[in-house]
Amino acid sequence: MNSSVDVIAPKWRTPQIFLLACVFVMSFTFATWQVLLNNFVIERANFTGVEIGVLQSLREVPGFLAFTAVFVLLILREHYFALLSLLTLCVGVALTGFFPTALGLYCTTVLMSIGFHYFETINKSLTLQWIDKAETPHFMGRALAIKAVGSLGAYAMIWLAMEWMGVDYVWMYLITGTIGFMVVLVLFAKFPDFNQGVVQTKKLLVRKRYWLYYALVMLSGARRQIFVVFAGFMMVEKFGYTVGQISSLFIINYIFNFFFAARIGKWIGVIGERNALVIEYVGLIFVFTGYAFVTHAQFAAALYVIDHLFFAFAIAISTYFQKIAQKEDIAATASVSFTINHIAAVVIPVLLGMVWIVSPAAVFFVGVGLAVGSLVLSLNIPARPDIGNEVRVGKVG
User: What are the TM regions of this chain, as residue ranges (predicted)?
Assistant: First the structure.
C-alpha cells in the first residue's frame, strides 16, 4: 500500500520497513526479558512452580484485555498506538532487574506485558491491512526472520556480557530496555503516518462465520503457554541449565528462523493453511509426549529446539483469517482474537503450575491433548478459504 506522503518520503520509508523495524525492537527487548527470566526468578526471588505460574498468568492478563485496543483506536491511529506500545514494553523491561521480589516482578511483568500485547495486536492488524494476501505468508516469514535477528542480538549480548564480563541482571535489563526505547524514538521521528486505506470498524466485533479461526487461536494460545512457561522452566529446574546454556538454545532456535522462516512462509502460500497446520500439530503431539518422558538434558534440548521450529507454521492461522475476513473487520477482530488467544493463557499457568508440583509429566500430557484438538480443527479448513468458504463443515451465517 502506498503512503500518503510517498511523493516526498525516501523509498525505504515504507509500511513494510516500518513493520519490520518495530518487530526488531519488540524481539530484542522481549527476548532479553524472556531468556533471563527463569534464572533470575530462581536465583534472586526464590520462585517455585507456583510463583512462576502466577507471574506468567499475570503476564497474560493484558493479552486477555487486548480487546480494549479497539477503544484506544477511537482516539489514536494504529501507527502511533504501535509505537506507544513499544515504548511501554521497553520501560517494563528496563525496570525488571530493580525489583527482585515476587510483588516487584509481578508489577514490572504486567507493565512490560501491556506494551507487548498491545503491540502484537496492532502489528498483526497492520500487517493484514497493509500487505497483499498473496504476499502475506512470505512477509510474515520475513518478520519471523527479523525477530530472529533481534533475538540473536539480545542473546549474543547477554552471553558475552554475563558469561564473560560478569554483568549483573539489573544492568542487562536496563541496557536492553534503554536501547529499545531510543530506537522507538527514532522510528517515531523518521516514519510518516501511513494511510491505512479501508476505514476499520472501531467497536467490539465477533462474527459467527469466523468461529474456526477463533477456536484455532484459543488452542494456539494454550499450546504456547506449555512451551513458554513450562518447557523453559523444566530446562532450568530439572536439568540445571545456566543462563548461558539457555541463551545458546535460543540462539539455535533463532538461527533456524533467520535462515528458514521466510521460506516456510512462502511454502505455506504454496501448500495452503490446512496442510501447514496439520504438519505443525502432528509434530507437536510427538514433541509434548517427549517432554513428558525425557530424562536426559541433551534430549530435552533437542525437543525444545524442535518445539520452537513449529511456531513458524502458525503463520497459517493469520493468513487463513486474512483470506476469510472482510477488510474493515481486521483491526477489531485482531483485538478480539488476542483476547480469545489469552482466555486459556490466563488460567493455564496457575492451574498447571500447581499440577507441576505433583507431576510435571501431566502438564505435557495436557499439551498433547491441545495438539490433538488443534489437529482436528485444522482439518476443517477448506483447500481454498475465502469469504463465504470459511470452513468445510459447520458453515454459519
Answer: 17-37, 57-75, 103-119, 139-158, 170-189, 210-234, 246-264, 276-294, 300-321, 333-357, 363-383
Tell me the C-alpha distance between 305 and 236, whole Å.
Answer: 15
**Residues 69, 121 contacting (CB under 8 angstroms):** yes
Please name the residue that has the C-alpha cell 517494563.
Answer: 92
Cα–Cα distance measured from residue 313 to residue 335, given in angstroms and rounded to the nearest whole number:
21
Distance of alpha carbon 55 from alpha carbon 45, whole angstroms: 12
Pick 26 or 37 by higher pLDDT. Answer: 26
Q: For residues 256 and 149, give the distance between their C-alpha atoms in angstroms, rounded to a whole number.
A: 11
Residue 59 CA to residue 282 CA, distance in Å, equals 28
- 239 phi/psi in degrees, rounded to 5: -110, 0
| Identity of residue 306 | I
For residue range 276-286, what is the model confidence (pLDDT) as tens digits? Answer: 999 999 999 99
Contact 52, 41 (CB under 8 A): yes
Q: Are 67 and 193 in contact (CB under 8 A)?
A: no
pTM, entire model: 0.81
